[in-house]
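Issue: ligand-bound run for S-adenosylmethionine - logging full I/O for the record.

Environment: standard queue, default settings, no custom constraints.

Inputs:
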Amino acid sequence: MAVGVVAVAPMTLVVVGVAAVLLVCGRMVYRGRDRFIPNLYSRDISVYEAAYRTFIADSLTSLRDRKIPGHTLLWEASRLPAPSRDTADELLLDLGVWIGWSTRLTAEASGRRVYGFDTFTGLVEDWQIDDHVVINSGTFSLAEPLARQLMRDTGVALEDGVPSALGRDVQFVKGSTYDTLAPFLAARPDVPIRLFHMDLDTYESCLHALETCKDRFVEGSILVFDEYLVTNGEMRAFYEFQEKYGLEWRYRAWGLEAMEMNVRMVRSPVKRLWYYTDWISRYWLRGDGRFVWQFVDKRFWRFWLGAPAGDIAFMLGAAGQRKSVSLEITGLGRLGE
Ligand SMILES: C[S@@+](CC[C@H](N)C(=O)[O-])C[C@H]1O[C@@H](n2cnc3c(N)ncnc32)[C@H](O)[C@@H]1O
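Outputs:
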């Protein structure tokens, strides 16, 4: 037995050593660097027109200096200036709230009222994630078993068809943002948006919300996009929006998406541990994290051969997906005319 163990250890070392040398050599000759986004290594961005490719490349260069360990949304909410008489009516909008935790925790972190918008019956359009998968419209309805179970385990009830506030300063607005957002703003004339959290997922809903809110953005407005590193979704919508109006802005942070917050709020520590174990193992074994080890998948090679070492560490080090990005508006361009 002992002899067997002694023989296996050097063999393992040799195999690991050879794999490491091959990896280093492979990385030196690999030509695909910077063609794949460090979210799913899915779509080859050379399918896009030159201007958008440049935008993506510049974005990643800037974001790599702005990595944060936690949730981008809470990082931003906790940095908003304390409410004062002058800023009391500024709007904090959470667009796409599901069972409501992103809204409640943003209110808690900022000490301000947050308005959460959702159909509560799920996505209003199909969501094509790069060239990876399509998430069908209707997904994320509160009638789904996962939503019901998480609501139960985090103490959320439905009151008049919307999730309960649970003592936080939140107000939920039920319905498609195509119908609710404009009347909501019209009822609050001239009030600026301080925090705009986009988690409606699809390109169409994101662009519509940006256009509807455009006159309420001011210098200093913070925009957080939960799914920014999906190049045909929120990133594309923001790219077109800022181009159209000549907006001036700068990136602030790149961190965890909001979804993982829901697990943090599970009340029973044993259940919480179970959720974490279940979600994390599902993600790496059967979910989007598969590309890290499934060598038959082309994304495996894009990741291990092409991703900068810092990205590899950042993506592997998260108990959730790192694709959420925040930015600050610094000049209104043609929006101010
Ligand atoms: C990913 S979930 C939001 C998750 C939530 N922010 C969290 O952290 O738990 C996306 C939500 O957006 C909602 N949604 C998508 N498009 C919408 C639209 N145009 N109007 C209203 N709600 C929409 C869906 O119903 C869904 O609940």
